[in-house]
Every structure is written in structure tokens, then in C-alpha cells.
């Protein structure tokens, strides 16, 4: 059994009852982040409509903090504009979780990196569907 005593109630709730788990077939922005040191992986799937996140899903392979960060992230970003999403930082995820043990803050980096990757995917995809006109 894992020792979860270092986590607060918010982290434990997201770990034990993760929200928005799974893939999103209609996603138009997909990002993946990986921490090579610990092996944690976060996949983020976003549906962006009218410049706002209408749906968010995640899949995580990792520790309790990584799962909690993915779950919390999807709740935080639903309804955000693309510009708000671009301004989201790892500390925002840590704050929303009520803090993480210092040795687990790398899990919030996964969340920020997955957002950056999803935004890169969205910008690449949206530009290919909307070519520049002469």
C-alpha cells in the first residue's frame, strides 16, 4: 500500500475520484508531457470551440500527485479562453490542489507542459484548416 499521508484532502479526493478521465474523440487539441526522471506521463485532450475550452479529458500514468494534477487541471480549464489557458502556470495547479509535497511538484510541471503541447497542437491544426488568404 502506498503512503498517502503527505497529501492533503483535495489531492486525495482528486486521486481517489479523478474527474474527466479518458480520451476525447472530438479533441482538436492534444498534448502529452512526460517526466523522464520518474516516468510519469500525462495525456491531455481538449475540445476548443469559439476560442474557449468546452471539454477537457486526461489520462495519466503516474503517482497520486500526477493523477490529482491531471484531474484538477481538467476542472480548472473548462470554460477558459485560449489566452487564459496560455497563461496558466504550474503554480496555479499546485494552488488549486492546496499544495503538493516539495518532491511532487514535478507533477504540476507535467500539467503545464501538457497544456503547452496541446496549444501547439491546436495552433498547428487550426492554421492548417484556415490557410492564409492572399
Provide the descriptors you would attach to this structure in a database record.
134 residues, alpha+beta, Sufe protein. Chain: A, 19% strand
Number of domains: 1
Average pLDDT? 90
Q: CATH fold name, please?
A: Sufe protein. Chain: A
State the CATH class.
Alpha Beta
Under the CATH scheme, which architecture would be assigned? Alpha-Beta Complex
Q: Helicity range of the residues?
A: 40-55%
Using DSSP, what is the number of strands? 3
The profile of the biggest β sheet is: 3 strands, antiparallel
Side by side, the strands of the main sheet go 1-2-3
What is the tally of helical segments?
A: 5
Structural class: alpha+beta
Straight-line distance between termini: 62 Å
User: SSE order in H/E notation?
Assistant: HEEEHHHH
Into which percentage range does the β-strand content fall?
Answer: 15-25%
Structural Rg? 15 Å
Sequence stretches where pLDDT stays below 50 over 5 or more residues: 130-134
Q: Based on CA inertia axes, which overall geometry fits?
A: globular
Describe it for me?
The protein is an alpha+beta fold. The chain has one domain (9-126): Sufe protein. Chain: A. 43% of the residues lie in helices and 19% in strands. It contains 5 helices and 3 strands, in the order αβββαααα. Strand 1 and strand 2 form a beta hairpin. Helix 2 (64-77) crosses helix 5 (106-129). Mean pLDDT is 90; it is low at 130-134.
Amino acid at each position: 500500500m502506498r503512503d498517502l499521508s503527505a497529501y492533503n484532502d483535495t489531492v486525495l479526493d482528486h486521486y481517489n475520484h479523478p474527474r474527466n478521465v479518458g480520451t476525447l474523440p472530438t479533441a482538436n487539441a492534444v498534448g502529452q508531457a512526460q517526466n523522464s526522471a520518474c516516468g510519469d506521463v500525462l495525456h491531455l485532450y481538449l475540445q476548443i470551440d469559439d476560442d474557449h475550452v468546452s471539454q477537457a479529458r486526461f489520462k495519466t500514468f503516474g503517482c497520486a500527485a500526477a493523477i490529482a494534477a491531471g484531474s484538477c487541471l481538467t476542472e480548472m480549464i473548462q470554460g477558459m479562453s485560449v489566452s487564459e489557458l496560455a497563461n496558466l502556470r504550474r503554480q496555479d495547479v499546485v494552488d488549486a490542489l492546496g499544495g503538493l509535497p516539495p518532491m511532487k511538484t514535478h507533477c504540476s510541471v507535467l500539467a503545464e507542459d501538457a497544456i503547452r503541447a496541446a496549444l501547439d497542437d491546436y495552433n498547428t491544426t487550426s492554421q492548417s484548416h484556415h490557410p492564409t488568404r492572399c
